[in-house]
Amino acid sequence: MITKTAWKNIWRNKTRSLVVIASVTIGIFAGVFAVGVMNGAIDQRVDEVLENEVSHVQITHKDFRSNNDLGSYITGVNSIVENISSMEGVNAVTSRLHLVGMANTARKSAGVKIIGIKPMQEKKLLSLHQELMDGTGDYFEEERGELAYIGYDLAKNLNIIRYRITGDVISKLDSAGLPGEVISAITGFKGSRFDNEKSFKKEMRSLLTSEQESGFGRLILEEAQTFRKRAKFTLTFVDRNNNQTGGVFRVGGIYDIPNSMFESTMVFVRDSRLRSITEMPDNTAHNILISLDDVDDAGTMTEKLRKEYPDLEVMNWKEIQPDMAMMSEMAGAMYGFFMALILAALAFGIVNTMLMVVLERIKELGMLTAIGMNKKKVFRMIMTESVFLSLVGGIAGMIVSWIIIRITSSTGIRFSSMQEGFEAMGFSSHIYPSIGADFFLVVTVLIIITGILSSVYPALKALKLDPADALRTE
Fold first, then answer.
1. For helices 14-48 and 322-360, angle between their N-to-C axes, nearest 10 degrees
2. Domain ranges in the chain?
3. Less CB within 10 Å around the terminal CB: N or C of the chain?
């Protein structure tokens, strides 16, 4: 009876109740959707780390990570790889050489990490070969030893990627729906060639308004890019005997991932080519990468390999990337705290509404008390009304947020204007929101708790009413 009465009471003033419910709906939707976006970004970043950067488990010489010395290598690599490959739960294993050096073109140079890989094995382990930019080449499809696979940001830093407005570029931009005034403006530097992104953007700013550049600058930049296949550049580094050496390489392909730091520093070349230049012995490597069938087994596999190879350093992805591991593990707590803050703010509105309800119904509450309704039932009635207001708005907000998250999880949300900032932190600017069903259960519990806590003060106010005084209230 109390529940039924409370439900009818909240609709006695429909306008006020609907305003409270709408505010709760909007607040819950905003909170859940924001959590969905944050969770999607973190999940994508973790996937990026595992699939393109570090894999699940790595083995190195005990001194390698501390000094990156070329002489700190693992011996007997072939037997180690063969042994680990036969273990249950292991998907793929490969070995790598690691060097620190310089990448140079005629006009630019940059510090890089040079990784000697075995392309066919890498394909089984990581997905970096799938990040190849269209029209920039391939992933070691040719057997030529001097090919290198470099990042998009490094290609820009070395002026391997340049910019030019041609008739074809203008036609493509026109077809893409750019306004006529923008097309006319960029036609002004048709035929001009720019060695780097900075000079191209400077020219673009001189011809376009800030609004035009913000809206169409990224598209113009992408269409104006030019690239000469198999462009030459040199890699210089120190060999095994501490002699300065290097070689001429050609860009075999350019990869593009949402991690500017990785793109601008990691250069991949064939293991055989790098080994011959550095005079590294056969059957050696600087690290071994291991991909598992289930990433959750990384901790168990790490412990197993530490016992198997006590003279080597074995680390899983959480130990290699502790910042991402901490972010991933603390995500649930952060989301709960975020929603608690939103509900705390909404609670003030609910408290205010329930106080108004109590003050408007002083005579009614006094009459109910006078005819025998005890204070416990009065308290329950007001508390139930508060919970209903919170729960109706909360459920509506969760339904709306679930629908929007389902839609955007397929299409994604682009933060094009903040792309550089996102990628500088290693995150993609095209985020696919996602959220687990368990989070909705947590939110439901938080909503009920909010409703209960919001009712305490108004209910106590009602309990202090004297029935005789309340009945005399006009």
1. 180
2. 2-48+324-471, 55-159+229-320, 161-227
3. C
